[in-house]
Amino acid sequence: MGPWRCLLLLPLLAAAPRAQQQHFMEYVERRLALLEERIAQWHDQSSRYSTELRDFKNQVLGMLETAEKEREALRAEAEGAAARVDRLEREVDYLETQNPAPPCVEVDEVLMEKQAATAKQRKNEKYTKLTDCSDTIASVRAMKILKRFGSSAGLWTKDAAGSSEKIYVFDGTANDTVFVFPRMREFTLFSTTRRAARIKLPYPWVGTGHLVYGGYLYYIRQQGPFQVIKFDLANRTVVDSSVFPAEEQIPVFGLSPFTYIELAADEEGLWAIYATKENEKNICLAKLDPDSLDIEQMWDTPCPRENAEGAFVVCGALHVAYNTRLPSRSRVQCVFDVSGTLTPEEASLVYFPKRYGSHSSMKYSPRERQVYAWDDGYQIIYRMEMKKKLEV
Fold first, then answer.
1. Is 198 inside any structural domain?
2. With contact defined as beta carbons under 8 Å apart, do 297 and 289 qualify?
3. Which residues form the signal peptide (predicted)?
């Protein structure tokens, strides 16, 4: 190739890199423009989403404010309704007090003759009081729900005759282990039984009619006939036992079919509340000797078993609590005073506040003038307002 041809090719070779560079710059510019367009679109979408989110937030805040106002209005209506219900219950209580329920005694001449004959056999003469106790229940002054412990049916109590602060808990209607708490505080504060001592009984109990009296546990054992077991809580030994002298026993309370004998204590001593097929419509009462477990005296009371859920004795007068539907408000509708001092007309119609279910046990403490009740697993204390009997 000649020199003059080389000189002609040199400009062409220099122009080729400049063209490639120009194409590359144009490509980069197109890509940057596309990226800027996408960034602008993202910015527009972000602004639109922010606006929609702000509008939605304002809408939700408005709805929440409206809901809060409606909630306050509903709360005020509920409080007003509760106040009206309470006032209605008080008015109903007043009307029921002014118009008491009809007497529990059925007028049946045959039954009266049969009861009179039975009364002679069982020496149903007037009871001779051992103390000067002349008090009777006027009303339930206060109710305190302590806690929920154990099964739906059971019993909790203190020693009815001593000064001990121990709490005795009988869980269930058929068991052989008693929980003992040192004080009410430990029983109330702790949900478990780790703070409680355990007493293993030699025989299992039946029902919820047990009683702690003067350092002894009196409870019912069923092995063929019903037996009253006297158990020394200090020595943890059986001191005495006695077959209860009543034939063909039936559940004493219509609403508590697991209890055949209800042991009770008052200012006069130890009592047994029971029922038999001989007089299956009504409840019977017996005075027990706490030392020998002998029956001192027996009565056929006019208090019916039907709709009865529990009973206790105060100053020699049997008080039976009734309930027509469960859960509802029970009331002491029948009172039988063995000394004849308190007539049915003078006895107060005592109402218990509405609860969770039904009473499986009611234990009166003569020392504290209050009733320890077990209501569907809840342990309740009823403080009683007392008044004097009218002496006859």
1. yes
2. no
3. 1-21
